[in-house]
């Protein structure tokens, strides 16, 4: 298949990944290419070129500089990039487009494309994307949710045609049957308020184990006021790590703390910890209860530090091999790609009669001329 993947433009699709969406997009593009498909990734300019990148814009992440004008520039740059791309795709020879952008324009303009499109819903509803989805009238368009939780959150706006759980490369997050000799807990992800790192720090202190933190600082004010003052000999931020470095860090931990303060759409960090054999203590938010079971994780009351500390203590007693087994069952990238391939083929097959019908209609000699009844009947018989 000839597959175009539209990425979001806030961060490059390259290691070290800014977050789960960047990692997911890279993994999907690479896996489809490795299966022999012709994949083109439409992403920001600093994305990894080895996956047939077509750069459509520089990164558009808004820096906190305190002026309205500074935030307007990335907004319009992003808007123009997607508008230009969707106009260009009308004349491109793809079999299907996979929209991973989280932007309103690709989905709102899906009906202008000659090929079908799949849009993956990676987040709970927010106003801009919800507006674009409400305007989507393309008959050959399909919505996919990354969890049952996300599907339910979007149900008042649109029906999800499928739920395809995100997957990870289980080889890159290898099983660690034994933790590091010196015990520690781990937290990693984007360092922003909604990820709740400050609560993980407090819970680790109550448990009495060191906490190692990894991830990019994407909210300077939050890090400066909430996190940096809490760092100590037993609470260390080790930086923004590559896949290999991260797998080593996570695999050595006694437990992973997951502390979302929003409805986590999926939680790739949970999948990665389980793949390494690390039990999870997590707030019961969003899709996390779909991933964890009693053999690999313990759920805590959201935003309750005492409950989280108790969950950590319980998680320390869980079997590491059961964690890996759960990851193999729920979080394998091969399963995810199998499901997307099957969906692509269904969408292409579903769109084929529409394309044939439009081509047949275009051979009218004059706009006002109607086909004779016999010709119309023959055409209908041919299209089935």
TrEMBL record:
CDD domains: GT4_AviGT4-like
A molecular-function term among this protein's GO annotations: glycosyltransferase activity
Domain annotation Glycosyltransferase subfamily 4-like N-terminal: ranges: 19-171
Domain Glycosyl transferase family: 177-321
Matches recorded under PANTHER family: SULFOQUINOVOSYL TRANSFERASE SQD2
Protein name: Glycosyltransferase subfamily 4-like N-terminal domain-containing protein
